[in-house]
Amino acid sequence: MAGITMAGSGSGLDLETIITTFVTAEKAPKETRLNNKEVALTTELSGIGTLKAGLADFQAITGQLGNEESFYQSKTNIRYQGRNVEQTAATEGGDSAALPITIQTKGMVPKGAFDVEVKQLAQGARLESDFLPGRDTKPGQGILYFDAGKDTFEVNVNITDTLQGIQKKINDAPDNYGISANVISSDLGAKIVYTSDKSGKENNLAVFTSDSSLDIISTEMGGHPAVSAVITVDGNTITEDANVFDHAVSGVSITANSLTKLNEPANFSTVTDHAAVKELIHGFVDGYNTLIDNINVLTHPETGILKFDPSARSVKQQLQSITGGVVNDANPRLNTLYAAGISLEEGGILSISPFGKNGGQSGSQRLNEAVNNSLDDLGKLFAGNDGIAAQVNRVLANNLGSKGMISQQQNMLNENLRDIDDDRAKLDSHIASFENTLRKKYTALDNTVSRYNATGDYIRNVLG
Fold first, then answer.
1. Using CA atoms, how far apart are residues 251 and 74, in angstroms rounded to an integer?
2. CATH code of the domain containing 212
3. What is the tens place of the pLDDT at every residue in 249-292?
4. 201 and 137 assigned to the same domain
5. Reported pTM
6. Same domain, yes or no, for 35 and 82?
């Protein structure tokens, strides 16, 4: 409202300064409270974001620790025709996909070396019809039955259905278990082709019909049958419906990619990388300590930006309960972090101490003993279904999830920030109304004083 009128112009009084002073006195403390509240909310929101980022970083570490395939750190070497590809649990696949076999380890894998020959790759059946005049040909009517192993489905064919329409009906059938129909057009006409995803000789594709008019696209079709995959491991023949062999070697899954040359087997060897296991556990300790240090800074009773926030303290308490507790499903000899060489130190951090106490083993010695001689039990402690990593991951997931305490706190803070914007708009409206009221009052005063001044001037002029 200021600037629209100039209060005091009639009376000569400095009413504009008076109005501005009253408006400032009304607005300043309220605006200061909103500014302080906004700063506090923004600071706390920043702290929550820092906490969430720290939890997410630690979750990446515990995700690897809790995965049996990555925890045991198996190392595989595949050799074939002069090529040599080394894999770890974290890099399985990759370059080995171009070799006749790919190896994937599962859990703890005994040391060993094996020769593998790929004799035959698994393949689904493929059937094709004789040529018909074109893709718009209407071959007949009836029911087509598609059988492969224990799976079956059927398709109703109407007299008006073209070859292309039948193809669509087959592909769109709701109970189709993996049969693809395609129409191929050439100079000789059109034919329909059925390809099955189900490999293995026991899953050969057979197509029947309820009406002989459809024989050309069912019982009279030719092609190749479904076949099984066949490999030998150290001369022992193994047959599977698919190209994956999960039980040929303990703890190892062999995938057949291509046939090996005659008398040129692919060789693979497996070994556990004990140093990598220890590095993974040290990474867990370092990640945990980094998170706890961050929480301690955030919740410091004097300087912490989350010192009044319960979510960070709740996470810390839950994590300390896990790291200081017992894993019930683990071997009683190795069911605590302390037994694995990890101690809980002052401030809530973890430590793998190189020094022993009272003549006992150091933390490093206990960890080495567990990794080298009790790796399976160590895996149950960390990577078991209810192991350390699984328990920690549940805490992290519950807090980081959309309904978790931290996410809810973050949503509440954002909502409060939006409320401040509404409060500022309300304050602006209130101040505008307050100023308008003042101006009306002081305008009236200005007019009154102006009339008194005019009367006084008149009297002085008359009296001379």
1. 10
2. 2.60.40
3. 988 999 999 999 999 999 999 988 888 899 999 999 999 999 99
4. yes
5. 0.65
6. no
- Six-digit token string for 286: 């370092």
Are 368 and 396 within one domain?
A: yes
Cα–Cα distance measured from residue 321 to residue 314, given in angstroms and rounded to the nearest whole number:
11
Domain co-membership, 262 together with 300: no
pLDDT of residue 96: 57
Considering the domain architecture, whether residues 167 and 90 belong to the same structural domain is answered as: no
* Structural domain containing residue 185: 124-224
- pLDDT tens-digit map of 130-189: 999 999 999 999 999 999 999 999 999 999 999 999 999 999 999 999 999 999 999 999
Last residue of a domain, one of 242, 272, 302: 272
Q: Tell whether 434 and 373 lie within a shared domain.
A: yes
